[in-house]
Amino acid sequence: MPRLSNTYRFAFATALVAGMAMSASAAKAEVDFKGKRIQLIVASSAGGGTDRVGRLVAQYLEKYLPGKPNIVVKNMGAGGGKIRAANYLMNKAKPDGLTFMQSDGTVVQPSTLRRKSARYDPRKFEFIGSLNRGGSVLFARKDALKRLTDKSKKPVIVAAISGTRSWQAMPMWGAEFLGWNVRWIPGYRGSGSMIKAIRQGEIDMFATNNAYIIDELVKDGVVNLVVQDGQTADGKLLPRPSYKQVPLMLERLKKAKISKLSKQGYRSLTAPSEIDKWMGMPPGTPKAYVKAFRAAYKKSVNDPKFLKTARKQFSKEINYIDGPTVAAMVNEVFGAPAAAVDYAEGLKKKYGLAAFKKKRKKKRKKKKKGS
Amino acid sequence: MIDALLIAISEIARPWPMFLMVIGIFGSSFFAALPGIGVLLLITIVLPFAITLDPYPAIAFLLGIGAVSNTANTFPSVLIAVPGSAGSQATIVDGFPMAQKGEAMRAFGAAFTASPLGGIFGAAVLLLSLPILRPLVLSFGSPEFLMLVIWGLSAVGVLSGTAPIKGLIAAIIGVMISTVGMDNKTGIERFAFEGEYLVDGISLILVGIGLFAVPEMIALAVRRSSIAETEGLGHGTWQGVKDVFDNWWLVIRCSLIGVWVGVLPGLGSSVADWFAYAHAVQTEKNPENFGRGDVRGVIAPEASNNAKEGGALIPTIAFGIPGSTSLALMLIAFISVGITPGSAMLTTQLPYTMAMIVVIVVANIIAAALALGAAPQFAKLSLMPFYVIVPMTLVLCVSAAYAAHFVWWDILTFLGFSVLGYFMKLFDWPRPPLLVAVVLGGQLEGYLWLSNARYGWSWMLEPGVLAIMVLVVLTLVMPIIRRRRRGQAAGGEPIVILTRWHRIGDIAFLAAIMAVLAAAADISTEWVMRASLVIYFMAALGITLGIIQIILHLRVIRSSWPEEAPVDREALSGTAWRTVESFLWLFALAAGVWLIGFHLTVGVFLVTFIRLYGGGWRITLLITGLAEIFVITVFDLLLMVFWPTPVLFELFGLEGWI
Predict the structure, then answer these.
(1) pLDDT digits (tens, 9 = 90+) for B346-367
(2) What are the residues whose beta carbons fall under 8 Å from the beta carbon of A215, sequence distance 6 or more?
(3) pLDDT (tens digit per residue) in B447-473
(4) How close, in Å, is residue B453 to chain A by CA atoms?
(5) Taking the CB of residue B656, how many other CB atoms lie within 10 A of it?
(6) CB B404 to CB A78 under 8 A?
(7) Exposure string for A43-71, b = 16+ CB within 10 A, e = fewer
(8) Would the CB atoms of A117 and B404 count as touching at under 8 Å?
(9) Fewest CB atoms within 10 Å of the CB: B251, B454, B560, B590?
């Protein structure tokens, strides 16, 4: 390479910088959704919690995205629901900046990926951001609380919908390390049936992050709050502001000096639920689009009007997590060794909850059917 | 309490709440009359607006929508045998035969009188049960629910009519369908075949339209006439109204059933109409007319499904336990506008509760008047020629199947149930038991598991359980005793007389069903016992019953072999060809949606069908134009559907074109 004089070098550098600046501004100008129709895939049926969060955020995104595009919601509810939506985002959705998804924490849970129908890798998604509605709080009927630490008595009955609900980690690790006297009955259909059952005394314990449910049960004197998962703020796990007096389960476990592996196993279940209601784009979406969405998302969820509505509809605590942090949290979850996930699944199996083994490559052996 | 009621009335009677209520009623009636689309979508659309309202206008608006969601859905059920929603399936059984007899107006008169009466009765029960609301809901645990489900399943016997064994096998198929998807107690994805589509199970509406609507339309296409086999429609409306008052006791009983199914969250609100229908058949005199256009078969389900809405509000406002997704959405809206469900609804917030009751009553009356006013126009459909009705209904069926999630698999599932429904109709199988079992099968398995897991077998000795058990036995035994006393045979004459060839065909059909049951049992061997037990049990029972039915067929065939008159081969092959032809049209319609998309297919299908079977250009263009306007207004403008790209468009890179 011939030697260049300083002047030339300077001119070259200037041209380079100018060119880069121009191309950057060109890229910026490209992200204009004027007159465009953007598709929001909601990974739940119309009316579910995920659906309502998605639709509400979309109303504000329409306002804050450059060019004020029209956002059309498509529900992928029943008929495969969450997993179908995630598979779609991974394998089918075009990364053209005109498709994004609203989903939730269970989709980025390692045990969900062990399901046979799951064909996606959440680490590859382009995360826009997330809303966390506060961690789950575990509660028990007042009359059952005394039996919780007394193994000579009848066990405290924990309701379960299926093993995938992250709050099950609290009673499971409680039974394993804090000597809790509990027994599970899986198979309840949803929060509604568990509220009824705990009031009747058919069950003694369950958890939710829904403040309305917690407060009503406390107000009517049915339950006492036991422990909570808490929520991460500025990198620290803290109790929910409205339930400051309720201890964090992880703190209790730390005091019990549990092993590193079992702690990782615990986090593999609970960390994804901290991510809660996230939005993301297909892998390979151009960075400029992702950036535009992240910026608009941040403005949307910090809009005072949005916050007012969201607090009314979802939870008093609405915490915004930005896209890069969501991606880091997902990476952290999946960075945990497979042994930690195995550990968690092993505990689930031990206590009679739905557990998933590692996916085997081999398909089900084909038998001749009928006859 | 009177004070609260007066406050409620004065708040609701203002212009703004009344205006919102009327808007809600119009919207609700429109959506309810569209099969497969339903009021839930409307509530989703209005929710962002509703949460900005004040409490009383919000109550007027949301309950204006919710309380009457089961009124206008009678239109498609009666006219074209398409269930307007999952809650109006039972109306088809007698409503459609009434339309065939030219009595559509009478059916509407009866339905739109029974509906508001049921709704008002539901509101009255809500009012009277206010003081005991909370203990009432809490008195039913899993064991009691289990017994109620068994009580509901005992209806299968009645719904089976003259074919009890086939009715039971149909119910077993229904239970098997209910097991498809994720099993709550183990997390196993049953019969999902490692794909995602079946993980959440099969939606009831696909089963309903496939089973009822398509077989009727095929029959109509084979017959090549209008739905009504009479010349005119007559003035049946008043007769229908009179019928309701003649059967006032039945209306009250069925309303009560509706209220109860509504009150108990988790029983499956889509079976209230079947419960009421079965109850009518079980208790009424001359039950042999049911299924052939008996007006009581319309009155019973219509009274119950409106009463259900009032009942369903009880757990929602007493505990914040919504019985359905629509109610879950309303609950969110209520909390957002400052109405907090819970004990306060009976004390400080009592006027809100009263306002809900007032709105239910007023909305029911307005909606029924509206429907009665529109009835003469709708009823004319039953006089239209088949080449208009058949293609229109098939399009409506496919759009209803598609509208749930816009997945092409749903259309495929619907086609499967259409074929199943056709064979069931051909071989005289009772179809209602299958539908009832789809809803209750999952509940039966779930509550049996929960009861046993919680209490061991001792739940059987709970007083509530014993009381319901007595009821179950009484319901099963009473009709038999009464018939004995009157010296009647059970069931009466069969509707279809099976020929020898029918029986041979039915044996093949039974063999196919048994093979599927065996295959299902084979697949389930890979699961833990907790998830597979119900499959083994049902498969074993189904195969045993199948063998018995085959033996019965063979005996009849042998005994009648020489005597039976030879079949008219020409007529038979004509019917067969027309049937195949009609199915091909249906398959072409489905394939078209997949290949070239919904809008194009609907246009091409309607034009070709109507023209080929003798419609003039004027009627062809009118119907096609109306259909396209309907598709664009409802799907594109109202619901803003993002259509999946049709396969051919994808192949040629024309995504942007649709």
Answers:
(1) 888 999 999 999 999 999 999 9
(2) none
(3) 999 999 899 888 888 888 999 889 888
(4) 6
(5) 7
(6) yes
(7) bbbbbbbbbbbbbbbbbbbbebbeeebeb
(8) no
(9) B560
